[in-house]
Amino acid sequence: MENITSEVTQEIQWVRLAQGGDTEAFGQLVRKNERRVFSLVYHLVRRRDEVEDLAQEIFIKAFRAIRSYNFQSSFSTWLSRIATNHCYDYLRHERASRVSFYWQMGEDRQRDLEDNVQNLSEGQLDHGEQVVLRDLVGKLLDRAPENDRQILTLKELQDFSVDEIADILKLKPTTVKVRLHRARKRMLEDWRQWREGK
């Protein structure tokens, strides 16, 4: 508990220094949060080749806006809000290249997906099958609408609480719960449609 308190105190000190223009202190904040930001960007955008550039843009935005950080939420929540909004803006501009749902995919892409998960129905999952399952989840996320992908990534992959997600997305917690329920339901329906061969 004491270790967590000292980490929070250290982070607050870095934030205050960064708010005064100290780039070294901000660099410490970047190092502490870069894995989370990279992961969040990858899971929202789903384009490995864009992750580094988008993460860099997010950290630049955060540095420029750090004086507006008011300590009402954790720094990682504040930074995740910037990252989520930045990715959402990026996706809005890239709508034309968005991947479609399974039943809208071409036959070749459907066949590739089916080949990757064929062994999952045979019972226990060995390491290779776990890799395939993660691939399936990734493909389902690829095809999910942006709003679903955003909320599922924050909850299931980034492990934010409902309240933290509400803070990041500027929504009420009840709205987050409803959107999570609907996103999970749609993803499950997408998976069922694939299983039934529709």
Describe the 3D structure:
The structure is a single chain. By secondary structure, the protein is mostly helical. It is 76% helix and 0% strand. The chain has helices at 2-19, 23-45, 48-65, 75-93, 107-117, 127-143, 146-157, 162-169, 173-196. Mean pLDDT is 78; it is low at 96-105 and 116-125.
Please give a handful of descriptors for the protein shown.
mainly alpha, single chain, 198 residues, Arc Repressor Mutant, subunit A, Rna Polymerase Sigma Factor, Chain: A, 2 domains
Percentage of residues in strands? under 5%
Structural class: mainly alpha
- Secondary-structure element pattern, one letter each: HHHHHHHHH
- Average pLDDT taken over every residue: 78
CATH homologous superfamily of the largest domain? RNA polymerase sigma factor, region 2, helix turn helix motif
* CATH topology tier name of the largest domain: Rna Polymerase Sigma Factor, Chain: A
Instruction: Please bin the fraction of helical residues.
Output: over 70%
Tell me what the CATH architecture of the largest domain is: Orthogonal Bundle
Task: Give me the oligomer status.
Answer: single chain
